[in-house]
Amino acid sequence: MIQLTEIHKTYKVGNKQVEALKGVSLNVEKGQIFGVIGFSGAGKSTLLRTINLLEKPTSGSVVVNGQDMLSLKESELRQARKKIGIIFQHFNLLSSYNVYDNVAEILRMNKVPKDVIEKKVKDLLRLVGLEDKANSYPSQLSGGQKQRVGIARALATDPEILLCDEATSALDPQTTESILDLLLDINRKFNLTIVLITHEMQVIKKICDRVAIMENGQVIEQGSVLDVFSNPQQPTTRNFIKTIFDDEVPAEILSNIKPSGPAAKILRVAFRGDAALDPVLGNLSARFPVTTNLLYGSITSIKGTALGILLLHISGEEKAVQEGIEFLRQSVYKVDIVTREEAAR
Ligand SMILES: Nc1ncnc2c1ncn2[C@@H]1O[C@H](COP(=O)(O)OP(=O)(O)OP(=O)(O)O)[C@@H](O)[C@H]1O
């Protein structure tokens, strides 16, 4: 649906050059919710805006729905942009227009007949839960309600893609949840492809299928949210995950592990909620002469799928430990052998 390949973007500021994007490549499938996370200045906004060419890349290719966006004429680009809605952190509503007109405006500009506009706006306001606010002005709305208007307006042209530029960053946690529920709802109802940028891992965890982590103008890691959460590779990714899912083992617990032979290992075991873990651990000790010790356990929900992380100390004869680890690998989502330092990081 969206293919960004080797995108570079350099801004000129006076006689200085700022390299905002340094060769970013991404692939977003139809119907996916794709999240891009990174600290301030990582290049997220610039990247998001290259999708509808609000930012023109310095080099690289942008293909949306099979169309090479950079080769389009101005009028073709206008048409292509109708299929790409966008919502913003600060909502960007027209303050002198009421809710109805904020949504209707784009349809009027596109010369849609009045009766069609009326039905469409009514349907959209119902969809976002604002039927009773059609005559209110933005200043009379809460942040969450303003973003609902933003979403209704973005959906007015029946886009296939919705870009979300820090859409929940100005909202409190509870309102954020309700806006994310709405995004999930429209993604499912319309098979709408959503690309969102955020600095909150909570947002990624709740609604995204895939995630790219950006740092310093580059994507440093990407994959399915479940994979990235269960086995983060980069320190920055781990730091983001830690904000909602801390798998650090207190040093005193680690120092209490008795030296128990050269074969002893610390395992990081990731399991999905649908895999029953109790029988696995029971079978492990029943079938192999190993001793296991649970150091840490945590469970979180990733878009409705439970993901558990355990740190397990396993000891015994070398052969038994190896076979036990193999058995675990076949039974759970992922098993990694970690050092004490890694377990405590
Ligand atoms: N129009 C511009 N002119 C010059 N430099 C820019 C421009 N837009 C962005 N930059 C620079 O490009 C880099 C990436 O900025 P960008 O806004 O894409 O990051 P971001 O990850 O979205 O950050 P934030 O979360 O703070 O919005 C930054 O160093 C920024 O200062």
Automatic annotation (TrEMBL):
CDD domains: ABC_MetN_methionine_transporter (cd03258). InterPro entries: AAA+_ATPase, ABC_transporter-like_ATP-bd, ABC_transporter-like_CS, ACT-like_dom_sf, MetN_ABC, MetN_ABC_transporter-like, NIL_domain, P-loop_NTPase. Residues 2-241 form the ABC transporter domain. SUPFAM superfamilies: ACT-like, P-loop containing nucleoside triphosphate hydrolases. GO terms for biological process: amino acid transport. GO terms for molecular function: ATP binding; ATP hydrolysis activity. Keywords: Amino-acid transport, ATP-binding, Cell membrane, Membrane, Nucleotide-binding, Translocase, Transport. Pfam families: ABC_tran, NIL. GO terms for cellular component: plasma membrane. Belongs to the ABC transporter superfamily. This is Methionine ABC transporter ATP-binding protein. It comes from Brevibacillus panacihumi W25.
